[in-house]
Specification:
Helices cover 48% and strands 14% of the residues. The chain has helices at 5-14, 27-40, 51-54, 61-74, 89-97, 112-127, 157-167, 191-200, 215-223, 233-253, 262-281; strands spanning 19-23, 44-48, 79-86, 102-105, 132-136, 171-174, 205-207, 226-231. Helix 5 links the parallel strand 3 (79-86) and strand 4 (102-105). The radius of gyration is 18 Å and the shape is globular.
Length: 285
């Protein structure tokens, strides 16, 4: 069943757990999320990264929103959809106009006051349309850069409080040792910082860069205030492996028409992965 991302985060917050948002670049990945959630009996979020549309043309914004909502309605568990990092007001407004009920305005590259101004403008406009907005403070960098280079960019609790109060964002992405991409070494989340941020603001907190963080750390982070957890790199890697395996098998048959069977092959490979991640990490009752 379709549910808004905002409501899913509040459901998670009440139960001291997190809902997982899986980056999905196409229908096969999105369908695996919906049906993996159904198999697990847990909520989930189908999430688009804007560059998959703007640069790689894997979908269109309006078509993606319609697809995600239709998939959500096919299953009996709550499934939402969300558009991840967009860095301009125009981009975020376009995405909302296309049918997304939840978007992210990422102005974290700017200083605090400018971040508040830019994010606040978007929130004001989109709240009038019933669209929720995720912001970011601190900066979630790239895993390849290493943790030591990122520590100065970790989210500060007082800045988080000020940002949430002044922008009225519906969710806040924070930096506590997490990063996008593949980690060079096992990350260590700053749990004390997370607890301090959770005490400073009642806004649902979001953890980006989830691939490669040990499950034990993730579960602790969920208990301490993370309500939404973004999973992209590892899910995309599973997709790549499934496509690669299909091509290897199909080459032996030398039948180009077999490409029609690839989406179903990939979905069958991805769905158990989604189910396992939800069962292992999400403690919804």
């Amino acid at each position: 069943m379709y549910e808004t991302t905002k409501n899913l985060m509040h459901m998670a917050k009440k139960q001291h757990t997190a809902v997982i948002a899986f980056i999905c670049m196409d229908y096969t990945m999105a369908r695996a999320v919906a049906y993996g959630a159904e198999a697990a009996g847990k909520p989930a979020i189908i999430m688009l990264y804007p560059d998959h549309v703007k640069t790689f043309h894997t979908a269109g914004f309006a078509g993606y929103a319609k697809m995600a909502k239709e998939l959500a309605e096919e299953v009996s568990v709550p499934v939402g959809f969300h558009c991840d990092h967009d860095f301009s007001k125009e981009g975020v407004l376009r995405t909302a106009e296309a049918g997304f009920d939840s978007v992210m305005m990422d102005a974290s590259e700017y200083d605090l006051e400018e971040n508040i101004r830019r994010t606040g403008e978007v929130v004001e406009q989109l709240h009038e349309k019933g669209v929720s907005v995720e912001g970011e403070i601190g900066h979630v960098g790239l895993a390849c850069e290493g943790q030591e280079t990122q520590k100065d960019l970790y989210t500060k609790p007082e800045a988080a409080r000020k940002f949430c109060e002044e922008t009225k964002v519906d969710a806040l992405a924070i930096s506590i040792g997490n990063a996008h991409g593949a980690y060079k070494e096992t990350p260590q989340l700053d749990m004390e910082r997370l607890e301090a941020i959770a005490e400073a603001t009642d806004t649902p907190l979001v953890l980006h860069g989830g691939s490669g963080i040990p499950d034990e750390q993730l579960q602790e982070a969920f208990e301490k205030g993370i309500c939404k957890f973004n999973l992209g790199t590892d899910y995309l890697a599973r997709y790549y492996e499934a496509v690669e395996d299909f091509i290897k098998e199909s080459k032996e048959k030398k039948d180009p028409v077999k490409v029609i069977e690839m989406p179903e092959f990939v979905i069958k490979r991805l769905t158990p992965y989604v189910e396992e991640r939800l069962r292992t990490l999400c403690k919804f009752e």
